[in-house]
Write a sequence for this structure.
């Protein structure tokens, strides 16, 4: 297993960041205390320990320190990164902006940071890392509409940027624009066809929009959502969110299918490329499968069995609640 | 005299210390010097402009769409396809905008960016050529005409030219190596040594450098007509036979998990 400061922080869970922060002093001292780092310039070139891992660790430490509020250590990391890569490096520019955002005390200071971003972008509009920071800053101060406009310009200039598309989808969803979010997530899938979390996310978005529909449209949307979750599980069989979504959609779909008239069931429009709605039997089987799998994941995940311990606690809890609510319904 | 008699030549052991070793050391040092010189002379590649980047990435997106079309439904795919075809027709995806169409290839000599690339290559070549010819001259002037070592294995006479350059004896055994030939052997054979000293992607060996320039292709080939490429991509999208990855996924999943458990 690689050392913890090598893996980028993927979740918003604060605990890994905290443990990483605790390791920061020992890591930093291991990087600088060697006797050869004090050699004069040409000799130090021969003996330096230059590697990608080193700088990735610096960056991750920097992020963890910012999250835990240790601005001094974060600044030390940033200094080393700036010394190595120069002030005008794309990545360093974004990290510097991040530091300034984190240390800003009030909105005026945040606006200063924003102005600095604008300056940088005026000089060179191709620095995408700073453009992304700008959009993120807009979002964090609550100007979602402006952030959306910013990101829309960005994805027009760089339509193969999956990260930007995903963020745009998230923003649109927070504004309640399911249609646009759907489009953005489809773009992400066109760039990364095997991202199972994106398949599941797309399923969630479709499920959300299905809540507002009724009749045949709702059934179609639910079927599509269910199939997205199926695809997600097909790509990663152990994905809790996928099973959760499958359980939800199949439950709803069963209600809708049983309530629907015979005529609606076969009405599939092959011209528009829609898929025929699934049969009740299949949906039932999928529902049972999702329930049993969820129960297994919850059981083994909470027990912390080997190979089952990567699940986030909040998700496990939500899954348990879902199962419990079902059993109550059956008991009644 | 004729016959398979082993030729014996008495060599001064000083030949080893004063010729073989110096040539080898000098060659290694030149390689290292060359590596650092070319690192110094390297020009950072010029940044693309935003519009050029946009053009490239829209092309990439169309290609992605072609490959991964199964991920989206037919309606979504058609919508994207039509959008792309429209934009190509309008020409708004091109870096020069709709006005830049039909200009054809720009002359590579008048393009300053092209010239810069060629200058970079010239610098690299000069860094290769100058030390090489200098050292060859040095060896020719000081060490020509010596036989400095004997290979421990027999060779066919075809190697005579290669191994005994600068020694004009006809019936000397091929196993004897002259100093000039030793230079050539080290010139081509030191790559592993450089790899060991400088890391694997070094610029010390000129052989590797030459291969690289060949792979880069002709710098005069220059820019292509982007509009044609875009049109070809639209046609590629037109002929895509669409299938949907969600088609029958529930049955696939059930079958897979039924056998898996």
């Amino acid at each position: 297993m690689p050392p913890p400061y090598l893996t980028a922080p993927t979740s918003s869970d604060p605990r890994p960041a905290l443990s990483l922060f605790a390791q920061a002093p020992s890591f930093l001292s291991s990087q600088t205390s060697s006797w050869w780092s004090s050699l004069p310039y040409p000799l130090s070139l021969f003996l330096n320990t230059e590697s990608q891992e080193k700088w990735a660790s610096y960056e991750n430490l920097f992020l963890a320190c910012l999250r835990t509020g240790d601005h001094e250590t974060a600044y030390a990391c940033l200094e080393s990164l700036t010394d190595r890569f120069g002030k005008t490096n794309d990545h360093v520019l974004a990290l510097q902006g991040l530091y300034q955002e984190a240390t800003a005390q009030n909105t005026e200071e945040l606006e200063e940071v924003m102005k600095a971003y604008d300056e940088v972008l005026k000089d060179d509009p191709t620095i995408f890392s700073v453009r992304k920071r700008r959009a993120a800053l807009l979002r964090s101060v609550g100007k979602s509409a402006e952030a959306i406009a910013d990101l829309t310009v960005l994805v027009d200039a760089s339509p193969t940027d999956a990260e930007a598309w995903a963020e745009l989808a998230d923003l649109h969803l927070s504004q309640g624009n399911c249609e646009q979010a759907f489009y953005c997530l489809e773009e992400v899938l066109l760039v990364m066809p095997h991202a199972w979390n994106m398949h599941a996310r797309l399923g969630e978005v479709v499920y959300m929009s299905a809540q507002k529909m009724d009749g045949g449209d709702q059934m179609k949307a639910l079927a599509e959502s269910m199939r997205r979750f199926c695809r997600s599980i097909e790509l990663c069989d152990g994905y809790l969110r996928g099973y959760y979504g499958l359980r939800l959609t199949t439950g709803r779909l069963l209600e809708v299918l049983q309530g629907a008239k015979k005529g609606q069931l076969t009405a599939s429009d092959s011209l528009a490329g829609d898929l025929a709605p699934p049969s009740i039997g299949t949906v039932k089987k999928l529902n049972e499968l999702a329930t049993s799998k969820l129960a297994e994941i919850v059981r083994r995940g909470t027990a912390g069995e080997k190979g089952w311990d990567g699940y986030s606690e909040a998700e496990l809890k939500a899954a348990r609640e879902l199962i419990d609510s079902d059993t109550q319904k059956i008991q009644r | 005299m004729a016959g398979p008699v082993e030729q014996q030549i008495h060599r001064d052991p000083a030949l080893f210390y004063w010729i073989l070793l110096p040539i080898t050391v000098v060659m290694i040092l030149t390689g290292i010097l060359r590596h650092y010189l070319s690192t110094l002379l390297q020009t950072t590649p010029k940044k693309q402009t935003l519009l050029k980047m946009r053009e490239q990435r829209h092309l990439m997106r169309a290609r992605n769409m072609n490959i991964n079309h199964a991920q989206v439904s037919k309606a979504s795919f058609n919508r994207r396809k039509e959008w792309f075809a429209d934009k190509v027709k309008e020409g708004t995806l091109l870096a020069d905008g709709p006005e830049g169409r039909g200009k054809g290839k720009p002359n590579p000599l008048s393009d300053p960016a092209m010239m810069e690339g060629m200058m970079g290559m010239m610098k690299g070549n000069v860094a290769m050529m100058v030390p090489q010819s200098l050292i060859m001259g040095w060896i020719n002037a000081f060490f020509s005409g010596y036989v400095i070592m004997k290979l421990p294995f027999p060779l066919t006479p075809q190697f005579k030219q290669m191994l005994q350059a600068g020694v004009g004896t006809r019936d000397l055994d091929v196993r004897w190596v002259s100093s000039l030939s030793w230079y050539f052997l080290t010139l081509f054979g030191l790559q592993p040594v450089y790899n060991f000293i400088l890391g694997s992607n070094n610029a010390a060996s000129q052989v590797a450098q030459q291969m690289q320039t060949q792979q880069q292709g002709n710098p005069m080939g220059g820019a292509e007509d982007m509009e044609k490429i875009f049109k070809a991509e639209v046609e590629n999208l037109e002929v895509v036979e669409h299938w949907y990855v969600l088609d029958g996924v529930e049955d696939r999943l059930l079958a897979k998990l039924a056998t898996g458990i």
About this structure: The two ends of chain A are 48 Å apart (CA to CA). Confidence is low (pLDDT under 50) at residues 267-272 of chain A. The interface with chain B takes residues 124-126, 156-161, 183, 186, 189-191, 193, 224, 226-228, 230-231, 233-234, 237, 272-275, 278, 282-283, 285-286, 289 of chain A (CB under 8 Å).
